[in-house]
Design brief:
four-stranded antiparallel β-sheet, 294 residues, 7% strand, 2 domains, single chain, 10 helices, Alpha-Beta Plaits
Length: 294
């Protein structure tokens, strides 16, 4: 039996390459959806706080008066900290010319600058409802220096509802993904062990116990799941770094702690599913009739 043990340790080396690729891809996709689901509420808050409120200042007010209005708005409880910005109508005209590619001066016909000095800001997510924004607009418009208050009313009203539907869709996709992952990994590992089916059966016929035969395969499955989780987790971290560079504010959502939670779940799922699939496959070969192996 000792000789058999040594022989089995040397020869039991199934080709896990394609199986590991499949497991890695599945774990990576599961990690992406898992991260989104874990942070869905925080993502809703982030998008809500990206809606811009534009305050138009009446002509004739400038200098200390506009600075005073800016300070008063910044002090309001519903205004997001450090989000208040003043833009003069001259700056607004330049920005509009750049955005629309205009090569002519808007004031060359002596009609004056038709734009207003504006103050823009974002509000906290708790106030980002159609009713809340309406109350905010009415409060600011009551100031005699303010001409009008504008915001994307339809956008503000639809963010929560749309994201709620997206969350349910994501949850459904994740559930389907898990099911597909299980079947895909089982099939991939079964194919990887296919070349060893006769060896597994012969070892059983000469007296090796199922646990003795399964042990090296299960050990290999555990190592394969660990390796796949490490690769998938590294890929998820790279995607996180890239997204943070593209979308300001995401660093407060997809933190290292969130990544660690997702990675631990990926690690546990990868090890359990690969080791379990390996054990089921070996057990199936042990119970199969010799003619079924051909």
């Amino acid at each position: 039996m000792a000789a058999l043990a040594g022989k089995s340790e040397i020869k039991i080396r199934p080709n896990y390459f394609y199986a590991l690729i499949s497991v890695t891809l599945v774990l990576f996709l599961a990690g992406v959806f898992g991260s989104i689901i874990l942070q869905s509420q925080q993502l809703v808050r982030l998008f809500k706080e990206k809606v811009m409120i534009v305050v138009e200042i009446k002509n004739g007010y400038e200098g200390s008066e506009t600075e005073g209005l800016k300070g008063e708005i910044a002090a309001l409880e519903f205004v997001k900290e450090n989000s208040v910005k003043y833009t003069s109508k001259a700056e607004a005209a330049e920005l509009m010319q750049e955005d629309f590619g205009l090569e002519v001066d808007l004031t060359e016909y002596n009609l004056g600058n038709p734009l207003y000095d504006i103050i823009t800001f974002h509000v906290g997510a708790d106030y980002m409802t159609p009713e809340g924004l309406e109350r905010i607009a009415e409060k600011i418009k009551s100031d005699e220096r303010v001409s009008d208050v504008n915001y994307e009313e339809r956008l503000a009203g639809s963010i929560s509802g749309q994201w709620g539907r997206i969350g349910w869709i994501g949850l459904g996709i994740s559930f389907i993904l898990v099911l597909v992952a299980v079947f895909l990994i089982i099939y991939a590992i079964k194919q990887a062990l296919h070349t060893d089916r006769f060896l597994i059966r012969n070892m059983h016929l000469v007296g090796a116990t199922p646990s003795f035969i399964s042990r090296p395969y299960i050990r290999m499955g555990i190592m394969g799941g660990l390796l796949s989780a490490l690769v998938a987790g590294s890929g998820l971290m790279l995607v996180r770094w890239w997204l943070i560079g593209q979308v300001p504010g995401l660093d407060t959502l997809f933190t290292i702690s969130v990544w660690m939670v997702v990675f631990v779940l990926m690690l546990a799922f990868g090890i359990v599913i690969t080791a379990g699939s390996t054990w089921l496959t070996v057990r199936n070969y042990l119970k199969s009739d010799i003619n079924e192996l051909y």
